[in-house]
Amino acid sequence: KGTLAGGDRMTSDGDQLSSGAASSAVVRNVSNISGKLTQAFYRLQGRKLVRSLRISKSFRVFDLGSGSGFLKPIFEEYGAIYHGIDTDEKSVAMARELYGPEGFQCGYFPQDVRLEEVDLVISLSCIDEVPDPVAALKAIGGLIGPSRGRAVIAVRNGSFPAYSLKMLVERVGFKRPSLVRDASYDCWIERMKEAGLRIVHVSPYYRPWFTGFSVSGVKNTLYRIANWVLPTRYCYMLQFSVAKP
Prior knowledge:
globular; alpha/beta; two-stranded antiparallel sheet; seven-stranded mixed beta sheet
């Protein structure tokens, strides 16, 4: 490739490429690499999670907050019947493009869901972002069957030291308050009980190691490392396994 005066480059077919366009191309390439790596790490993390759930053939799975749909092919490897819902149209479109049109719905929970009963509800970092978490948890309880039905729900934990500090900074006025308040460990326990769910197990929830080339990605990596040394009640995210009483 040739170089022109002023820092512009020549493409392989002889077209002039301005330094600004070249810079944009680099940013797009980095973004694409970041996106592909993020998806790969999410699939790796999802595979580990699904393996731990001991899924049986023909298991009916409902993924609340399905995002880009990376869990669908993993569940289907175990013979499960998958249905996911998300409010974000772009995420649902991406999921359909990556993993096929079936099993993905753009809509709101529970009003747009027509499922009667499922064996497993899985919701990763979704319930902590809705206006009424208890109502959402009650709706989840209405979906899982009374015998083997269960739910796995991952939420942010307001008891995590960094989150507690963030809320303190907001209270004294140094930072604009967040629209979503992160509930504490004890608050989540109370919410589960208020929704009529039986807590089977509580454990730390680990986001994938890589979540993009960004400040948020570095932050999530540091938070994940912090989970190694903190007691469960202070970990940055909690994973609740729940069932009917």
